[in-house]
């Protein structure tokens, strides 16, 4: 029996993908072996890998002048990978702080670059993004970094900042593929796979080729974008099973109608749950409406003592993973691409009942 899984990551996957993986697990398309048992240099796996890349390129309309990498080390690895690949020692970079993941990216970057925090949403308790047009990026910044969607705070940029000639670099871990995005506006986009792309173990990096070749000599080989691009992300053994599963998820997104269709669905799901929260005096979400995430919806009940009973009763009703992040408490519903609207409907029905009994 499958539950509706609202976990923030690793997160729910499309059932069709799991069924397909199950059917192919023991004998992948007549090869007599599982994908996880194949050499990453085999013709079969090289095809699996190339198809995943081609699908990602098609879905996001990635321009030719961008390389697509499938690496390990998660988004966290790229918190270091970004400065190591884009700057020389002594350089500066600009960062926007909209919450927990931005802060982690900033802390890691400080090991390598002089960080200018050009906007810090602390005053709103991280419930806002900087106003459009308000960012002033110092000319010595090698890049401007932002977190498109804060997975813990549930804050998502409703616009893309413009830093002129300074490349825009983004951690898109929890919003990648949730809606169309203009890749050409970015220098680098990176995203850990375990939110919206598939299982954990992979980080996808889309990097404009003219930004390659700036890596420090001491960059670890496993994080060297240029070397990895030249080796088709196979300088060493990649996480083959995760890569294959991401390919199946991309095929599923294609079958659903691509990113325009995903965006319509995700908007409808988000409206359903925010609408329920806003109509009630019991639930609340503190995020500025324009910056509310379509993917991660944190919410509170009036009395923190009701949080544990809420999560337990939800679990018993087949609604899993609703506890808030350990750093902030409360509740959080992650409603990635693979969460069907029926799951969100079941959640809001549960919320309405819980309010009647406890409100
Ligand atoms: C989950 C997440 C990360 C961390 O990803 P890892 O793969 O655990 O390194 C970083 N940034 C954002 C926005 C995330 O949602």
UniProtKB/TrEMBL annotation:
Residue sites binding L-glutamate per the record: 41
Residues involved in pyridoxal 5'-phosphate binding: 75-76, 101, 151, 171, 194, 236-237
Note describing how the cofactor binds: Binds 1 pyridoxal phosphate per subunit.
Enzyme nomenclature, EC number: 2.6.1.52
Catalytic function, reaction form: 4-(phosphooxy)-L-threonine + 2-oxoglutarate = (R)-3-hydroxy-2-oxo-4-phosphooxybutanoate + L-glutamate; O-phospho-L-serine + 2-oxoglutarate = 3-phosphooxypyruvate + L-glutamate
Enzyme class: transferase
Alphabetic keyword roster: Amino-acid biosynthesis, Aminotransferase, Cytoplasm, Pyridoxal phosphate, Pyridoxine biosynthesis, Serine biosynthesis, Transferase
Pfam families listed in its UniProt record: Aminotran_5 (PF00266)
InterPro entries: Aminotrans_V_dom, Pser_aminoTfrase, PyrdxlP-dep_Trfase, PyrdxlP-dep_Trfase_major, PyrdxlP-dep_Trfase_small
Cofactor(s) this protein requires: pyridoxal 5'-phosphate
Annotated ranges, domain Aminotransferase class V: 3-347
Signal peptide: none
Protein's UniProt keywords contain Transferase: yes
Record-level GO cellular component terms: cytoplasm
SUPFAM superfamilies from the UniProt entry: PLP-dependent transferases (SSF53383)
Pathway noted in the entry: Amino-acid biosynthesis; L-serine biosynthesis; L-serine from 3-phospho-D-glycerate: step 2/3; Cofactor biosynthesis; pyridoxine 5'-phosphate biosynthesis; pyridoxine 5'-phosphate from D-erythrose 4-phosphate: step 3/5
Molecular function (Gene Ontology), one example: O-phospho-L-serine:2-oxoglutarate aminotransferase activity
Family as reported in the entry's similarity comment: Belongs to the class-V pyridoxal-phosphate-dependent aminotransferase family. SerC subfamily.
HAMAP family to which the protein is assigned, alphabetical: SerC_aminotrans_5
Protein name: Phosphoserine aminotransferase
Species assigned in the record: Ornithinimicrobium pratense
Gene: serC
């Amino acid at each position: 029996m499958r539950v509706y899984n609202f976990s923030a990551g690793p997160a729910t996957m499309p059932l069709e993908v799991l069924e397909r993986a199950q059917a192919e697990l023991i004998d992948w398309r007549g090869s007599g072996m599982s994908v996880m048992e194949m050499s990453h240099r085999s013709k079969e796996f090289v095809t699996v890998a190339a198809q995943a890349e081609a699908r990602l390129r098609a879905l996001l309309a990635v321009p030719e002048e961008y390389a697509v990498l499938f690496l390990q080390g998660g988004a966290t690895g790229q918190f270091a990978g970004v400065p190591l690949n884009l700057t020389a020692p002594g350089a500066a970079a600009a960062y926007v702080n909209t919450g927990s993941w931005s802060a982690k990216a900033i802390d890691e970057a400080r090991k390598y670059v002089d960080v200018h925090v050009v906007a810090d949403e602390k005053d709103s308790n991280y419930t806002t993004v900087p106003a459009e047009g308000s960012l002033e990026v110092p000319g010595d910044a090698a890049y401007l970094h932002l977190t498109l969607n804060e997975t813990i705070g549930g804050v998502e940029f409703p616009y893309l900042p413009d830093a002129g000639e300074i490349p825009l670099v983004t951690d898109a871990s929890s919003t990648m593929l949730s809606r169309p995005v203009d890749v050409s506006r970015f220098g680098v986009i990176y995203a850990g796979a375990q939110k919206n792309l598939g299982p954990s173990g992979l980080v996808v990096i889309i990097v404009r080729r003219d930004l390659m070749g700036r890596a420090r000599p001491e960059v670890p080989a496993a994080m060297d974008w240029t070397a990895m691009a030249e080796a088709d992300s196979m300088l060493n053994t990649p996480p083959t099973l995760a890569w294959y599963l991401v390919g199946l998820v991309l095929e599923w997104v294609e079958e659903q109608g691509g990113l325009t269709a995903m965006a319509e669905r995700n908007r409808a799901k988000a409206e359903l749950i925010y609408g329920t929260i806003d109509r009630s005096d019991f639930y609340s979400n503190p995020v500025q409406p324009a910056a509310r995430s379509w993917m991660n919806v944190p919410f509170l009940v009036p009395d923190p003592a009701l949080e544990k009973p809420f999560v337990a009763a939800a679990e018993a009703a087949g609604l899993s993973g609703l506890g808030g992040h350990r750093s902030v408490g409360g509740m959080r519903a992650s409603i990635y691409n693979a969460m069907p609207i029926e799951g969100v409907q079941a959640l809001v029905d549960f919320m309405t009942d819980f309010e009647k009994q406890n409100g």
